[in-house]
Design a protein that fits this description.
The protein is of the alpha+beta class. The chain is built from 3 helices and 6 strands. It has a 4-stranded antiparallel β-sheet with strand order 4-5-3-6, with helices on one face. The protein has a two-stranded antiparallel ribbon with strand order 1-2. β1 and β2 (13-15) form a beta hairpin. The protein is elongated, with a radius of gyration of 17 Å. 16% of the residues are buried.
Length: 133
C-alpha cells in the first residue's frame, strides 16, 4: 500500500479491507429499473451503516447488482450478505408491488452470491514478501 489514506484505524487495528459482492435476481429475471437501483442503493447503504461498514459503490444491470463494501475487520461477510439481501428484498418488494408478478413466493435474490476480497498487493507479491521474512 503506497497511500496511507487507504488505511483505516480502530482502537487496536489498522486495516484496509474491501469486498466485491455480486447478487443476481432469482431465476435471473431482468426486473430492475433506474428507480429500483436508487432504492437498492439506499437500502444497501443503510444495512452497511448498521454493520459499521461503508458502501463505496453500487451498480448493476437489470438482473444483478455489484457492490463494493468496506467492512470492519470483525464483520462476518456471510452475515453482512444475508442482511443486505434480506432487507433489500423485503423493502424493494414492498415499494414496487409489480415485482410480485415475478416473485410470487417471496424472495428477490438467488440464494447464491459472489464475493471477492480486493485491493492491496497481488497474491504473488504477498507470497514472496512472506517467504522473505
Amino acid at each position: 500500500m503506497n497511500d496511507m489514506q487507504d488505511l483505516r484505524t480502530k482502537r487496536h487495528v489498522v486495516y484496509s479491507l474491501h469486498l466485491h459482492l455480486v447478487f443476481v435476481t432469482k431465476y435471473r429475471r431482468k426486473v430492475f429499473t433506474e428507480k429500483m437501483y436508487e432504492r437498492l442503493h439506499h437500502h444497501f447503504d443503510r444495512v452497511c451503516s448498521d454493520f459499521g461498514c461503508r458502501l463505496v459503490e453500487t451498480n448493476g444491470q437489470m438482473d444483478h447488482v455489484h457492490l463494493l463494501v468496506e467492512p470492519l475487520p470483525h464483520t462476518t461477510p456471510s452475515r453482512l450478505v444475508n442482511s443486505l439481501k434480506g432487507v433489500s428484498s423485503r423493502f424493494l418488494r414492498q415499494e414496487f408491488p409489480e415485482l410480485e408478478k415475478y416473485y410470487w413466493k417471496g424472495g428477490l435474490w438467488s440464494p447464491s452470491y459472489f464475493i471477492a476480497s480486493c485491493g492491496g498487493a497481488p497474491l504473488d507479491i504477498v507470497n514472496k514478501y512472506i517467504e522473505n521474512q
